[in-house]
Amino acid sequence: MDLLLLGPPGAGKGTQGARLAEHLGLPKFATGDLLRDAVRRGTPLGLKARAVMEAGQLVSDEIILGVVRDELAKPAASRGVIFDGVVRTIPQAKGVEALLAELGRRMDHVLFFDVPDEELLARLERRRTLESRADDDPDAVAVRLKAYREQTAPVLDWYEQRGEVLRVDAVGSIEDIATRVHEALGIS
User: Among residues 94, 53, 46, 104, which one has the least CA distance to residue 70?
Assistant: First the structure.
């Protein structure tokens, strides 16, 4: 089963993705994790990504898709993958679709974690306080939310036009949200 988790920063994709990965026995791909791992291993794509990141620029769709291609080729990914926010642009959505098609697969489900802005901001502030994450300071959050709305929100529209989105109310306890995710996917 190949699943894509979409939603703004702080929507709970990482938390629920980790739970799903464990429950389903599938690897979870998160863009940052994949890039950091490729950089750490010194792969050709990792070296390209490091140069771009060190220059303070966004990593190109080409590099993202190359890293995803490498990960999909691993035996652990043969039964499916949970894509945790990996698809952030329409070219990435089309690229992942093509990569899966090469393997005779398709995106089985797209889950959108629906959370109001006030809740997102409160969650990110709590996370910043608890985890001291630099990317959760108010200025960084504003930049990330703006980037999400400009680049990633159109991806949601793209999948919705194709009738592939399952919306999940992502407000409540982690357990309540997990129950809604399982219900949306029809899994126990």
Answer: 46
